[in-house]
Model the fold of this input.
Amino acid sequence: MTALFQSWGASYEWAWFWSMLIGILVIALPLMLAVAMIIYAERKIWAAIALRRGPNVVGPFGLLQSFADGLKVFLKETIIPTSANKGLFLVAPIISFTVALIVWAVVPFDVGVVLADINVGLLYILAASSLGVYGVIIAGWASNSKYPFFSALRAAAQMVSYEVSIGFVLICVVLYAGTFNMTQIVMAQQGHIFGILNGFGFNPLLFPMAVVFLISSMAETFRTPFDLTEAESELVAGFQTEYSSMSFALFWLGEYGNVILMCALNAILFWGGFLPPIDWAPLYAIPGIIWLFVKMLLFFFIFGWVRATVPRYRYDQLMRLGWKIFLPLSLVFVFVISGWLMLTRYGAVA
Amino acid sequence: MIALLAFYLFATLTIASAVLVVFARNPVHSVLWLIVAFFNAAGLMLLTGAEFIAMLLVIVYVGAVAVLFLFVVMMLDIDFAQLRSGVTRNLPFGLLIALVLLAEIVIAVSAYRAGPVFERGAAAPAANAVPNIEALGHELYSRYLLPFELAGLILLVAMIGAIVLTHRSRGDGRRQNASRQIARRPEDAVKIAKPQVGQGVEL
Done:
């Protein structure tokens, strides 16, 4: 697209600037729409599991429910508690929303269909996702209220704990792929198993890591069974307690943006991203973006399914799972996988 | 032009937020400004082509170190008046540190200007020739293997030392054993009794 703008007489830098701006809009606007639809889908999944009907009033089959909710939230009054730290109180939801959006810059939708094809893509994702906790901490502190503050402390500890094991899981993937570039990580999965199956997840050495990553990504996005930050039975609504109107909606959009992102990451890192699951020519006739969306929806269904069926963890159980089970397990797998690769791929025995 | 614009943007923001770290009245605000400063420093690193260092700066400092900072500072109950009362007393010491740091910067810059320190005297590597990570990896695991491993070992010792020094096991603490809890069956825990009227239950 840069070339197109250049042909219209713009200098390279401005052409680049405008094409990036359009690229951002092309990703961000459908994402917002996807969030609205996916909330509807999730409520339908929960309803089906709980033998209820779910949203079915607004629009055909209740399809417009999320838009009605959005409109309602938009029309509410923004309430700022008098003892709150006003600036930070307003900045917190903006941070959490922005951070959820910026990660999408490096997510590849097909070969070459990515906003920023940088060679540290995976590190960028790790960096950006570690920022997500600031929105929650700042919201909890700036509210100047006890439940949000408890929630913020829980969130900080939880994020830091699970990021450690996520880091090791990502290292396992990088060891196999030999690159940090997201597109190349996907391409490295082509024909990974006997030249037939596309996806690191089919590899017996990496499958346990795929499971650890799936569970950790639920913990990272504060979803049930790890939603201790907004455990309504103890903390009202956690860090969102004092928020209303659009500032609340931004948290909400950011949260679901992150959930969709984690579904995409699960698909991209372990299950072949935009590649079809089987390396068979006719399957490539279906565009890669459709394969990616199908995989993301499958993971989203798993997320919703788990949320509807698994009871919440106790805080010490959460910490135990993160530090005493996932951390040693992923560390052992980094060790085993690097040893296995040295033995088989690089053929170096002393 | 955009690169130049970005440089001045990041540079000004870094300095401005660094100044605000010192002058902010609320310690939590100080930490948040520090995070902004880290972030802009990462932006500067990106502009020089050190994308790996930039990402590490964000992951390690912003994502982990600053979170712990914020964590601790938020929980402190700080008396601002008492904090500021020591300013005049500590001023000479602070100025001394500032002077030392300034001297170090001047020495470093002038040494760099005077010529390359290493005898190899290689020119700066061309951008994008080899990705940062690959270049660093090759250096770390070949030329600097021993220092690298030693650094890891020292960190491990420091970590174990910190745990040993701070860990106090309370004798009366009641610990939970998750596997024992899960392995417990209803038959072991529940006894079904059919008490006679007026007799009660013998447990």
Notes: The longest helix of chain A spans residues 12-49. Residues 123 and 180 of chain A are 7 Å apart (CA to CA). Chain A touches chain B through 31 residues (CB under 8 Å).
